[in-house]
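Quick one: structure for this chain?
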Amino acid sequence: MAVRPVSLSLLLGLAAVLGGPPPAWADGHPLLVDARWLAGRRADSRVRIVDMVTEPEEYRKGHIPGAVYLNVNVDWTEHLRPDGTFKPLAALRTLYVARGITPDKTVVTYCQTQHRASHSYFVLRLLGYPHVVGYDRSWSEWGNREDLPIAR
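Got it. Here's what it folds into:
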């Protein structure tokens, strides 16, 4: 199939023009994960799963087992100064470390469709966490699959 090598060549060429791939690519770490990857690692003590939902009730209705709950309405506000800019990095780091979300873990962010979780993904990368990944299909996939466990 000739399309695959051509696509790869274009991607590598673009990466070279832009200064190379992101460090996560070069280190062999994915930027996004799928249900199979997460199901195989959710009980791993080196992985921390972060559920970004809006209300405690949403979390209590069901989440990926082992996920840490972060309330989007509260925690995003905690990230910002009154003028809408991010608080100092040390203050942001404290918010995550207090919940057991530490740089030595592979941190997986998810929400319903990964759009809310992208905020924490960005902040964690800003803080220099080396292994942050997003669960692309998020709860919209996990919560609808009968073969995957749900914690309540």
